[in-house]
Amino acid sequence: MTRDRKSYRRLAVYSSLIFILPSTLVGGYYLGYFVDKRLNSEPWGAVIGVFLGMIAGFVQLFKLLSRY
Prior knowledge:
Helix content: over 70%
Distance between the termini: 16 Å
Order of helices and strands: HHH
Structural class: mainly alpha
Shape: rod-shaped
Number of domains: 1
Strand content: under 5%
Radius of gyration: 16 Å
Number of helices: 3
Oligomer: single chain
């Protein structure tokens, strides 16, 4: 690979960081909301879902950043 291709690839990976944390938070919230509606346990499912989404997002961020 040429130097330009490597820098474009790295730029693409780093630009994906913008979407990792918000998407895991939103996904965790909606999964928790679904659990809340099924088990009638409002707001605890959504709260736990947001925390689990946050943890998953940070794990993904650290995995991605440690690779580069």
